[in-house]
Amino acid sequence: MSQPGAPGSVDDAEPTIGRLVSDISSDLSTLVRGEIALAKSELRVSAKAGGVGAGLLVAVGVLLLFVITMLSMAGGFFFAWLFDRDIPLGFTWGFLVMTGVWLLVVLIFALVGIRFLKKVKAPKRTIATVQEIPSALKGKTDPRITIDLPAATPSPAGDGAAAAAAERSRSGKRAR
């Protein structure tokens, strides 16, 4: 058994290298899971809006086929009226009016679909936090970002300078 304070003894206050590696591993795992959860929550809204917008634009394509069919029918009845005056011109006008109605529906669907597609955004918060990870791992931090840490406890030796520095950091003042 080793004696406390003897050279080579492991003090309970200082973590071992294995413990540090384990802590780093679990912290990185937690960080990655948090980033994935943030990305999912941001992308869920965009994916929903993108799906609705894409669905509406597909409906626009299908409805345009109806418009083409209605115009073809109106053209056919108009040519039939030109060649044989016994066919009423009302069929042509009816198909032209219905073509206009379908064009209005197509226009509304297209505008709403485009509005939904404009709601699709990149996950800005996730991108910002992921870009900060390398500098945080290197120990560099952005001075605009503040993190509330617990106050430092003074050392048993009564180091007044450390206590004063801790007090200055809590109050936000810098030493001159």
Task: Record keyword descriptors for this entry.
single chain, 176 residues, mainly alpha, 4 helices, rod-shaped, disordered C terminus
In short:
This protein has 176 residues and is mainly α.
Topology at a glance:
Elements: H1 17-83, H2 90-118, H3 124-137, H4 160-171
Helix pairs in contact: 1-2, 1-3
Helix and strand pattern: HHHH
Number of strands: 0
Low-confidence segments, given as residue ranges, are: 152-166, 168-176
Distance between the termini: 50 Å
Helix content: 55-70%
Which whole number gives the mean pLDDT? 77
**Largest sheet data:** none
What is the CA-atom radius of gyration, in angstroms? 35 Å
Task: Assign the structural class, choosing from mainly alpha, mainly beta, alpha/beta, alpha+beta, or little secondary structure.
Answer: mainly alpha
Global geometry: rod-shaped
Hey, roughly how much beta strand do the residues contain? under 5%
Q: Helical element count? A: 4
Q: Can you tell me about this structure?
A:
This protein is mostly helical and 176 residues long. 69% of the residues lie in helices and 0% in strands. It contains 4 helices and no strands. The chain has helices spanning 17-83, 90-118, 124-137, 160-171. Helix 1 (17-83) runs antiparallel to helix 2 and helix 1 (17-83) packs antiparallel against helix 3 (124-137).
